[in-house]
Design the sequence.
């Protein structure tokens, strides 16, 4: 599958940008995690930025990142076969390594980790890695439908207000937690661990099942060599745009208007429509990467995606440096528009560093360690 590498790496880099646009809002303040807006930033521009992030970024790029994880899972199978190694033990070591990295990420850097969720869900994917494509697709559909049904049932039959803090309580908690982010390393670790219960709940109810569905779709796509021989002129790419943008943008707007993750109906609409917008984004990027005048986009994004694990962790390191008491202590002081801009500035820096690093290294630092543990021997640099 060597023909698909650069496209997939570029898509992975694109996914990292979208994820960071969302994550940086949680790194900069405890208000988003408490589902309340910071009253210090209540201008129309602040509100418009929050709307854009919710409508265009929230829940969309996580799906793409998960899809690409499933795609790369098949590439790991191919690599094991080329090396003459047994795939299951090798992949189990990779899962363990990913989980350990995720735990360290949660404790030391950022409580909104996806690596631990991916590691656990990957066990299901590993158990299903020999199923037929039809079975994988049906399972993905059933799992995704179950998430939607559970959200609808929760919206109709559960009074979530009985389990949720009042607005004033949430606002007070957000202020206290934001202050904790400005404290000592021990207080920052305490803040990260304090969100563990919510992380597990989200992983079990929403992120884990949707990730599994995307893993399975990605696995099937890789088996069928989806990104191997694309020219950018395929009709299905245009169809993905024509269908995906109207449905996805409308759903994103509804999700944002209803209060994003703070509203169960809004979350339901997003879960239903986010795949359409994600597919439209992918189709658009692929077409741009194969057009003569914009092929440079792939050249820019691919190095970031090639060392995606390192860059994902590096984004959290930047968050620690910028917002916590360990670094500049800007938590609670940066407006949504500036955070949005800052995400792109940091990502631009990651592009430059990734290009520089890959001139003399085959793997990123995190990829190097994970590959060492996965293959059980030191990889060549």
Sequence:
């Amino acid at each position: 599958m060597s023909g698909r590498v650069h496209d997939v790496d570029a898509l992975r880099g694109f996914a990292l940008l979208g994820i960071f646009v969302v994550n940086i809002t949680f790194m900069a303040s405890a208000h988003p995690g408490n589902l309340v807006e910071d009253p210090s930033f209540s201008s129309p521009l602040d509100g418009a930025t929050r709307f854009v992030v919710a409508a265009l970024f929230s829940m969309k790029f996580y799906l793409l990142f998960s899809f690409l994880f499933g795609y790369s899972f098949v590439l790991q199978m191919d690599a094991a076969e080329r090396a003459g190694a047994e795939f299951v033990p090798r992949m189990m070591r990779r899962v363990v390594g990913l989980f350990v990295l995720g735990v360290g990420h949660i404790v030391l850097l950022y409580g909104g980790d996806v690596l631990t969720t991916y590691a656990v869900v990957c066990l299901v994917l590993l158990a299903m890695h020999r199923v037929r494509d039809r079975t994988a697709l049906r399972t993905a559909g059933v799992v995704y439908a179950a998430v939607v049904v559970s959200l609808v049932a929760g919206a109709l039959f559960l009074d979530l207000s009985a389990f949720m803090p009042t607005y004033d309580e949430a606002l007070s908690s957000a202020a206290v937690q934001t202050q904790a982010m400005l404290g000592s390393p021990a207080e920052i670790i305490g803040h990260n661990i304090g969100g563990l219960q919510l992380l597990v709940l989200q992983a079990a109810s929403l992120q884990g099942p949707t990730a599994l569905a995307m893993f399975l779709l990605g696995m099937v796509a890789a088996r069928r060599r989806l990104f191997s021989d694309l020219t950018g002129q395929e009709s299905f790419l245009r169809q993905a745009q024509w269908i995906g943008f109207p449905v996805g943008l409308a759903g994103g707007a509804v999700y944002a208007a209803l209060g994003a993750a703070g509203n169960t109906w809004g979350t339901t609409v997003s879960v239903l429509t986010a795949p359409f917008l994600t597919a439209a984004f992918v189709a658009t990027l692929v077409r741009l990467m194969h057009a003569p005048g914009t092929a440079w986009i792939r050249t820019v994004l691919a190095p970031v995606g090639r060392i995606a694990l390192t860059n994902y962790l590096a984004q959290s390191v930047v968050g620690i440096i910028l917002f916590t008491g360990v670094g500049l202590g800007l938590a609670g002081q940066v407006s949504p528009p500036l955070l949005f801009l800052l995400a792109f500035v940091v990502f631009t820096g990651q592009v430059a560093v990734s290009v520089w690093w890959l001139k003399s290294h085959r793997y990123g630092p995190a990829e190097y360690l994970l590959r060492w543990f996965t293959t059980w021997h030191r990889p060549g640099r």
